[in-house]
Design brief:
Length: 261
């Protein structure tokens, strides 16, 4: 496994075979996918960290979904990846949908965890407030946000039985730089839905029964707009799908890829 900086984006690349590109969400990193790497056996796994997130530097212009999409397309070009399976979580699922619509030639399939089309209008001010808190209080503000996310975005089962998962979610958010996290929040707050009816590749949508960001009813409605998509709802799972239910997520991915063979 190696990590390279490509257009100021930290990218982990491992393995050979068909490419799979893994896109994390807000407050995430390449490690969102570490628990499910077994599902990608025999594939070339590309795990970028979005501009402004984790180890990647901020871009020279404000972060946005469009900027993420264009950056990922450029990174794939630099790596010589002409077509890839795309796996994404949370905000990353919005990026993946726009990538599939804008660059259909690059996308072989979509597997979206905790997916959403765009933030609901009533949720956008709260995301903007997180950006303001991150800028105002710096690392202390990011810690406050991390503690709230641990409480609000994980399932009751995770809180009761998986303390290491709680620590991992908290660490993932706390490792973000205050300005990078603030701009990432602003990118999410400004996100608009892609024209998902144009998506024609095999698509898997996985959410948790306690996921408030990608609630099952909304994910099922989303699936109805993507022809031939499959929806799976994991029991006892909140929004941090691959951290909370890694074995189940890996099995869903393995079955999804096997179905395309």
């Amino acid at each position: 496994m190696s990590t390279a900086l490509i257009r100021n984006v930290a990218v982990e690349v491992d393995g050979d075979g068909q490419a799979v590109v893994c896109i994390h969400g807000l407050g995430g990193s390449s490690n969102n996918w570490t628990p499910v790497l077994s599902a990608f056996e025999g594939m070339k796994v590309v795990r970028p960290e979005l501009p402004g997130s984790a180890r990647s530097a901020l871009a020279s212009q404000p972060l946005s979904i469009d900027l993420y999409v264009d950056t990922l397309a450029s990174v794939l070009g630099e790596l010589g990846v002409s077509k890839a399976h795309v796996v994404a979580h949370s905000m990353g699922t919005i990026v993946a949908q726009h990538l599939a619509v804008k660059h259909p030639e690059l996308v072989k399939s979509l597997a979206l965890f905790g997916p959403l089309l765009a933030p609901p209008d009533q949720g956008r001010p709260g995301i903007q407030a997180r950006a303001a808190l991150s800028r105002e209080k710096g690392i202390a503000g990011v810690q406050e946000i991390a503690d709230v996310i641990v409480k609000a975005a994980t399932s009751a089962e995770t809180k009761a039985q998986r303390p290491v998962t709680l620590a991992l979610v908290r660490e993932s958010v706390m490792r973000q730089s205050p300005e990078g996290y603030a701009q990432s929040c602003e990118a999410l707050a400004g996100a608009q839905a892609a024209e998902v009816e144009k998506i024609s590749v095999p698509t898997l949508l996985v959410t948790g029964d306690e996921d408030g960001v990608g609630p099952p009813a909304a994910v099922k409605a989303m699936g109805e707009r993507i022809a031939g998509s499959k929806v799976r709802v994991l029991s006892g799972c909140g929004h941090w799908t691959t951290f909370e239910k890694p074995a189940e997520c890996a099995e869903e991915l393995k079955a999804f890829y096997q179905s395309m063979q």
